[in-house]
Amino acid sequence: MISLVLQKVRSVRHRVAIRFGLRPNGREHILRRAPKGAVCAEIGVFRGEFASHIVRITRPAEMHLIDGWWALYGERYPDWGAYTDYGRLGTRQAHDEAQEAAPNAILHVGHDLEVLASFPDRHFDWAYLDTSHTYGQTVAELAMLSHKIKPGGLLLGDDWHDDATHTHAGVSKAVREACASGEWRTIVEGDEFAQWAIRLVRPHSHHDHSKQSVRSGPSKLTQYQQHAAAVSGSRLIGDVRSFDRARHNSDSDA
Length: 254
Ligand SMILES: C[S@@+](CC[C@H](N)C(=O)[O-])C[C@H]1O[C@@H](n2cnc3c(N)ncnc32)[C@H](O)[C@@H]1O
Description:
There is one protein chain. By secondary structure, the protein is α/β, with parallel strands linked by helices. It contains 9 helices and 7 strands. Helix 6 (135-148) links the parallel strand 4 and strand 5 (149-157). The two termini are 24 Å apart. S-adenosylmethionine (SAM) binds next to helix 2. S-adenosylmethionine (SAM) binds at residues 23, 44-46, 49-50, 67-68, 72, 111-112, 130-132, 137, 243, 248.
């Protein structure tokens, strides 16, 4: 009961902060769990606010910042309220601010699944995921990252909400399913800043899914398992190019 009330308070605080164009302070504490001097990625970067925390706290040896910027939204962001200056914020400005926040980072402009697919498997020691927060997109990202993060590596992320009515409830649902698959292990199931952390314990193997298909039939595979099975090495999963911009930050598939 107490934890539900605390969740609700966190959720309201989060919504209020976003409403006024702010991200709640304190969420960078999750970065203390990340290894220092490592190879990392932030997926969903925007203006680089969190990227500056990553630089300060983890001092990466190699840092990749991945975001759609103008490739997803054109020259100006949609009107996401104060967060995008009511649609006046330029995507190139946000990109340049991110580069300033992390001068040594390599920036990648494009749909995250396409960009991630271009990396060799097991490239990253850890990553921070903060993109659309929709269920379907998060499922696909977790499946892709199960190939691109090293076994034993960490995935951290934003927007954990247990309240099923929250617009971003799809993240916790997708992360729980990924952990239930046995490939990831839960480390933090939403702290007081809605941050979460999971560890890759067993990288995806096609063998696992073919065994499961024989046992229970392909229709019994979870959405996470179907995506993980579809991602092979650096090949793209089938629906990457069908990304619909209008669904960004919506709860339509959560
Ligand atoms: C909440 S903002 C990221 C904020 C940033 N992590 C921070 O805390 O400073 C979400 C970002 O994800 C990006 N994004 C959403 N869906 C994406 C996708 N499929 N591929 C690449 N970027 C995406 C958006 O362009 C947006 O900049």
